[in-house]
Design goal:
Layout lengths: L1 E3 L6 H5 L7 E4 L11 H7 L6 E4 L7 H17 L6 E6 L3 H10 L5 E5 L2
Parallel strand pairs: 1-2, 2-3, 4-5
């Protein structure tokens, strides 16, 4: 499964990571639309039977999202869930943090600390 929160020009390379019957979940689009080679690549992967799913919170009313958010906050407060952090860096190392993000190497959030 690929969960893509960015979209954009790397979508083809992520699609190619799927195994047979793999799932591609698109849930963000900060990177913009895919390149023009995405749909031909999808057809090339046809015999692997990929499933593509897209989901935007914009399609869910705020009143419907609120209970889910409250449940997430309850679980977080109890310590039942926690964010995945890759790096905590001082704000003075913001440039280093951007380089890490550019390379795509972090697994989790990169957090800048004010002090």
């Amino acid at each position: 499964m690929v969960v893509d929160t960015v979209a954009g020009p790397d979508m083809v390379s992520y699609l190619e990571l799927l195994r047979d019957n793999g799932r591609y979940v698109l849930c963000g689009s900060a990177g913009g639309p895919p390149t023009s080679d995405f749909f031909p690549a999808l057809l090339d992967q046809y015999h692997k039977s990929p499933t593509l799913v897209s989901f935007s919170l914009n399609s869910v009313a705020a009143d419907d999202r609120r209970p889910s958010w409250q449940e997430i906050m309850t679980l977080w407060t109890r310590g039942a869930i926690s964010p995945v952090l890759d790096e905590r860096l001082p704000l003075t190392e913001a440039e280093q943090a951007l380089r890490l993000l550019e390379r795509g190497t972090p697994f989790g959030k990169v957090v800048l600390l004010p002090r």
